[in-house]
Design a protein that fits this description.
The complex is a heterodimer of chains A (153) and B (380).
Chain A lengths: L18 H8 L4 E5 L21 E5 L3 E10 L5 H6 L2 E8 L6 E7 L22 E8 L5 E7 L3
Parallel strand pairs in A: 5-7
Antiparallel strand pairs in A: 1-2, 3-4, 3-6, 4-5, 6-7
Chain B lengths: L5 E8 L10 H16 L8 E5 L6 H8 L6 E5 L6 H13 L6 E8 L29 H16 L3 H15 L14 H6 L2 E4 L1 E2 L8 E10 H4 L7 E9 L19 H11 L10 E3 L7 H8 L8 H4 L18 H4 L6 H12 L11 E5 L6 E7 L1
Parallel strand pairs in B: 2-3, 2-4, 9-10
Antiparallel strand pairs in B: 1-7, 1-8, 4-7, 5-6, 8-11, 10-11
The chains are: A mainly beta (153), B alpha/beta (380).
The complex binds zinc ion.
Zinc ion binds next to loops of chain A.
């Protein structure tokens, strides 16, 4: 498996627990690991439930809706492929289903533009609490990542 | 109980610089031999060693180079800068329990002239990097910047508060001839106009990557009375890896803004004879400015969300409510993974700091916040 895209971005390198997440995103589904016994969602994925100790899990489909929990705007020094895109915002998004499930992602200007440049949304437009929607971007034939579009844009 | 049963009796360091010619191994040996000389203890008497898991000079190399005797206790503390105080804590436990008699803790690091750890793209750690690095959240500055913006949002902290932290450290470095920023004063204008690294963090919110090494020597309180220098007692020590902690990217914790400091603090104060209000001076891990307000809250110097306001009115300066990082800290003296904070704490309680707090008798030293951490409460 490749560790980088052709243009030099790092690809996720899943562990056994994370692998299902990336299989679902490849199909265009945002799913989060949940305990099959007590039902609690957990992220990042792990072998057993910190709540009840069960090793039985299921991957629950999310709506893809959430809110900005925080964000940074990255400036150089960065790895070369990232420096070319800088400055770019990166957000942590809390999901509507459970605000303690928070995903990191880049922003795109519209759900119809999964391939928009990383700096497509000016940082001045970002506000903590702003509603966002998951967008799926195939970065290689094998890997699809989740990006976030500001709602109403 | 560990309380005051062991003491630091020797400290040593190399020069701090952006670039030093010697290898990390040579620098480690210099710092350790300087610390032993300071203590008046022969290398062959050393029987315990402790360092960071990230230290690249191992026990075999160090022990044979300095001419140590049989080593009967050795220990490594994990999680980067979170391990600094743990090295001393492990030695204190070994010596207090009778497992060893002369312990040396050290850290040698060439990151001023070497590569930044985050540029190592082959080091694709599966968890949690798979959830962050593909999205451009590459560096510790980005990871802490994310917490910083949330902290500013929740508690009304501003860049001026972060500047207060950077300025206090720089002002102390301007008094310390060994500090990298000794002759480089900082102004508010410089800070506000500085280039961004990861907004909301600018250049001056980041520590100085540095070449250098430090070491210190731990013996029993009984033996310490016969040493060359005034002993500095290890009054209380702690490590902290709180429930549901996720490392630097603690975004999945129920409450990401209460980091490992809170867990370490509960243990630290539980076994101490005094509380935060009795601390004369503090050396608080400052890889990034926001770690100081977060740590002030975690260690109980103020309430939750009050850490930024605590920095107002010169509180962190010499003569303020809690002088911090009196050698200049990681932000302005040099960043040797937090070990310089330990030695500066010892200097304060010996009364020999270049920015001495008059009659300082108690000092808190903390290790990396944002990762599993450790802390020391020192007493003169
Ligand atoms: Zn469960």
């Amino acid at each position: 498996m490749d560790t980088m895209t052709a243009d030099g971005l790092l690809l996720p390198w899943p562990d056994d627990d994370g692998e299902p997440f990336w299989e679902y995103t490849r199909r265009g589904e945002l799913r989060v690991q949940a305990c099959a016994d007590c039902g609690r969602l957990r992220f990042p994925p792990r072998p057993c439930c910190p709540q009840c100790g069960s090793f039985a899990d299921e991957w629950r489909l999310m709506s893809g809706r959430g809110r900005l929990w925080s964000f940074v705007v990255a400036h150089p020094p960065l790895l070369p492929a990232y420096a070319e895109r800088a400055p770019y915002p990166v957000a942590v998004v809390e999901l509507d289903e459970d605000p303690k499930i928070r995903l990191v992602g880049t922003l795109t200007s519209s759900p119809r533009r999964p391939n928009a440049p990383w700096n497509a949304v000016p940082a001045q437009r970002l506000r903590i609490g702003a509603p966002v929607q998951a967008v799926f971007q195939a970065v290689t034939p094998e890997v699809t990542v989740v990006r976030w579009a500001l709602c109403g844009s | 109980m560990l309380k005051d049963r062991t003491a630091v009796v020797g400290i040593g360091q190399t020069r701090f610089a952006k670039h030093l010619e010697e290898s990390e191994k040579a620098l480690a040996c210099r710092a350790v031999l300087a610390a032993l000389d300071d203590a008046g203890i022969e290398p062959r008497e050393v029987d315990a060693l402790a360092s960071f898991t990230m230290e690249e000079t191992d026990e075999v190399e160090l022990a044979k180079a300095i001419g140590a005797g049989d080593i009967i206790f050795f220990s490594r503390a994990g999680f980067g800068g979170g391990g600094s105080c743990a090295t001393v804590a492990h030695l204190a436990m070994a010596v207090a329990s009778g497992q060893a008699s002369v312990g040396v803790a050290w850290r040698s690091r060439k990151r001023g002239s070497g590569k930044r750890p985050w540029t190592n793209t082959t080091q694709q750690l599966p968890t949690p990097a798979q959830w962050t690095r593909p999205f451009g959240l590459l560096r510790p500055a980005d990871e802490i910047g994310m917490l910083a913006r949330r902290y500013m949002h929740e508690h009304g902290a501003t860049r001026d508060h972060l500047f207060n932290v950077a300025l206090a450290c720089r002002n102390r470095a301007n008094q310390n001839p060994d500090a990298i920023m000794y002759d480089r004063p900082l102004t508010r204008e410089m800070y506000m106009d500085a280039r961004w690294i990861s907004e909301p963090l600018c250049l001056y919110d980041n520590c100085l990557e540095t070449d250098g090494a430090l070491a210190c020597v731990v013996v029993s309180a009984e033996r310490a009375r016969d040493c060359r220098r005034k002993p500095v007692y290890l009054h209380s020590v702690a490590q902290g890896l709180p429930a549901q902690h996720h490392g630097m990217v603690n975004y999945w914790n129920d409450d990401p803004l209460t980091g490992p400091a809170w867990a370490a603090a509960r243990q630290l104060w539980k076994t101490a004879d005094f509380g935060p209000e009795d601390v004369d001076v503090a050396q608080i891990y400052d890889a990034f400015t926001p770690l100081i307000p977060l740590s002030l809250e975690g260690y109980g110097f103020c309430g939750r969300g009050e850490g930024a306001a605590f920095t107002e009115g010169g509180a962190l300066e010499l003569g303020g409510r809690l002088p911090v990082n009196t050698g200049g800290g990681g932000l302005s003296e040099g960043y040797i993974h937090g070990f310089n904070l330990i030695n500066e704490g010892v200097k304060q309680l010996r009364g020999i700091s270049t920015a001495q707090v008059p009659d300082a008798a108690t000092c808190l030293v903390t290790a990396g916040e944002g990762v599993p951490t450790s802390a020391l409460l020192l007493r003169a």
